[in-house]
Amino acid sequence: MAEVLIVGAGAAGLMAAGAAARRGHAVTVLEHTDKPAQKILVTGKGRCNLTNACDEEEFLRHVRTNPRFLYSSLCAFPPAKTMELFESLGVALKVERGRRVFPVSDKAAEVRQALLDYAAGARLVHDGAASLLLEPLPQPEALPGKKAKKGPAFRCAGVRGTSGQSYRADCVLVATGGLSYPVTGSTGDGYKLARQAGHTIVEPVPSLVSLVSHDPDCKKMMGLALKNVKLTLFEDGKAVWDEQGEMLFTHFGISGPLTLSASSHLGDMKKHRYHVEIDLKPALGEEQLYDRITRDFALLANHAAQGALVKLLPASMQPVMVARWGIDPATRANQITREQKRELVRLCKHWTVSIDGRGDLAHAVITSGGVSVREVDPRTMESKKAAGLYFAGEVLDVDAYTGGYNLQIAFCTAQAFAAHLCGGLK
């Protein structure tokens, strides 16, 4: 039996705590907030998209950063096992579009409670981690004519809490999350602990985040949610990603599921120019849309330009479309020319929004960046810098697109850590 200390009671921390405790280890979890796993409650719009019902090969295609690092842990604990575990904990599941897995209740609180129940065998302590307790390890001497094989420089013997109390353990798992949604407790403390042990931190940036646009039309339509539209992201004029779904106009730009997915495909915004095009009617080809508009205008022959759009567009978009269309608002539907209708078709199929920046980390769904995976064993999640120190979840430099993939990463890396403990600590 090992004395296990876990820093962070989020998705990865609670999953690791439950798995380790159920293997007979003595587990203590440090959580600096008074409400564990708060971030679970805001995932999936409060519904918690907890995994994706795909196989490992398909899953890895949706991992944006360092997918190869996950191969071992994902194969050992794939989405099917995550689903089996939560159903054994009493959470009935359903699979929706894109193989996204949600609780049947549509309540993220049910997933959070299941994780707390799973980790009930661990001791939860309300305290933060100020620093690691590191002890130097002797390095092997070089044999004649050969270089010495370097091992970890330290052994992690525990953590000094922010309360001043020291917690000693055989191993320490850092599962503190990234920097996204800091109000839920993700404040980047894990990066500080990792640096103390000599780890490289890949600069954290927001991912799966709303996008900033200086286009004044966005503010004019703030609050407008569009469903069943197609959004295409362009980098330097070349399409790099597209998907159909939902999006939202805001006072600062655009948001919603499509926007979050698009944001993860942005590169260096100092080196590249980005814009998106929205196809408002993806089910219709341009000729079909032209015919549809012609029929609408025939029925609304005596309406002015904006009124002629009543069957085509949401109310808050109609005046914005008329302005962008460049037509005299007083023009009646039966006076609109063929060329003007063609221009309307073009605008409906290619509504353009400039992208001028990412939203901030405070509102990002996940953080891209973190502890360099080159310095972590992918089979066990153990640090290569300090023996007995481990990492799991978002604190690592691994992230994926939206669709349940990022929570699955937290779960499988946590399970890899616990499975390693079962083989005994050296």
Automatic annotation (TrEMBL):
Domain RsdA/BaiN/AoA(So)-like Rossmann fold-like: 3-417
SUPFAM superfamilies for this protein: FAD/NAD(P)-binding domain, HI0933 insert domain-like
Cofactor(s) it depends on: FAD
Keywords: FAD, Flavoprotein
Domain of life where this protein originates: Bacteria
Signal peptide extent: none
Domain RsdA/BaiN/AoA(So)-like insert: start-end pairs: 205-365
Pfam families the record matches: HI0933_like, HI0933_like_1st
Name of the protein: NAD(P)/FAD-dependent oxidoreductase
Organism: Candidatus Faecalibacterium intestinigallinarum
